[in-house]
């Protein structure tokens, strides 16, 4: 379990997170929602070690984690996946992280092949990522993070740039990863997309959590910044 305790974060004078406290249970699929500028991206970036822990603590199995510990434990997929593509081919992009940790070559080839297949990217392995569709890019960015086997996977609005078909595929990918034991946290503006994949939701309001609980219970309340899925109107 990841325990987030009293996390407060400032960009200069701007308070982006205000004493955020919650727990991420292993195996769960959690949604983070909230208006623009409510702190979703900031929270995810701290949790994966991209931004420092200024105030507060993050604990894993009762041990306090450093920013560096988080980098190993957690993977992060950016809002715009192009921000994290580094390879000149799909295959190279997936291999990059494994090369970085010094994985032995034969093992690396096997891991890359397994990941290419499980994300449906095998046929595209020699393609230049710049030529991929938005959906394929999102899958590649997720694959390149997942190949490193993070215990926790955080994705910032993974479906916001995708059409319906690509969104469906990414959601299925995430569902399969979650079923395989990876704990997932997704920030989204589109609650309806994830109604059938997730059960637990956190609502951020101006850097503070003002709701945490089951989606069903969340939908019974009226948060002005949240578009209620059609089936609940
Ligand atoms: N690099 C930055 N420098 C200064 N202020 C920032 C920076 N990034 C975010 N902020 C501010 O921090 C607050 C939280 O922003 P954040 O991006 O975390 O919100 P968000 O919920 O992800 O918003 P969105 O839904 O638009 O993606 C906002 O007031 C934002 O303007
Ligand atoms: Mg954001």
UniProtKB/TrEMBL annotation:
Gene3D superfamilies: P-loop containing nucleotide triphosphate hydrolases (3.40.50.300). The keyword Transport applies. The keyword Nucleotide-binding applies. One of its GO terms (molecular function) is ATP binding. SMART domains: AAA. InterPro entries: AAA+_ATPase (IPR003593), ABC_transporter-like_ATP-bd (IPR003439), ABC_transpr_CbiO/EcfA_su (IPR015856), ECF_ABC_transporter_ATP-bd (IPR050095), P-loop_NTPase (IPR027417). CDD domains: ABC_cobalt_CbiO_domain1. PANTHER family: ENERGY-COUPLING FACTOR TRANSPORTER ATP-BINDING PROTEIN ECFA1, HEAVY METAL TRANSPORTER. Belongs to the ABC transporter superfamily. This is ABC transporter related.
């Amino acid at each position: 379990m990841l325990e987030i305790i009293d996390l407060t974060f400032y960009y200069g004078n701007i308070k982006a997170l205000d004493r955020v406290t919650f727990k991420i249970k292993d195996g769960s699929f959690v949604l983070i929602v909230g208006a623009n500028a409510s702190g979703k991206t900031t929270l995810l970036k701290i949790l994966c070690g991209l931004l420092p822990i200024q105030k507060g603590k993050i604990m894993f199995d009762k041990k306090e984690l450093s920013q560096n510990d988080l980098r190993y434990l957690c993977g992060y997929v950016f809002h715009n996946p192009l921000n994290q593509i580094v390879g000149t081919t799909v295959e190279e992009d997936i291999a990059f992280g494994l090369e970085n940790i010094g994985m032995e070559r034969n093992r690396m080839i096997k891991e890359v092949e397994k990941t290419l297949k499980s994300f449906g990217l095998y046929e595209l392995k020699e393609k230049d990522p710049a030529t991929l569709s938005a959906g394929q890019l999102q899958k590649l960015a997720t694959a390149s993070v997942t190949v490193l086997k993070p215990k926790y996977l955080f994705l910032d609005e993974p479906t916001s740039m995708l059409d319906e078909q690509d969104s469906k595929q990414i959601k299925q990918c995430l569902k399969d990863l979650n079923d395989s034991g990876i704990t997932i946290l997704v920030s989204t503006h589109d609650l309806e997309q994830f109604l059938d994949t997730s059960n637990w939701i956190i609502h951020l309001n101006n850097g503070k959590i003002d709701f945490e609980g089951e989606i069903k219970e969340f939908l019974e309340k009226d948060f002005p910044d949240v578009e209620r899925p059609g089936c609940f109107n």
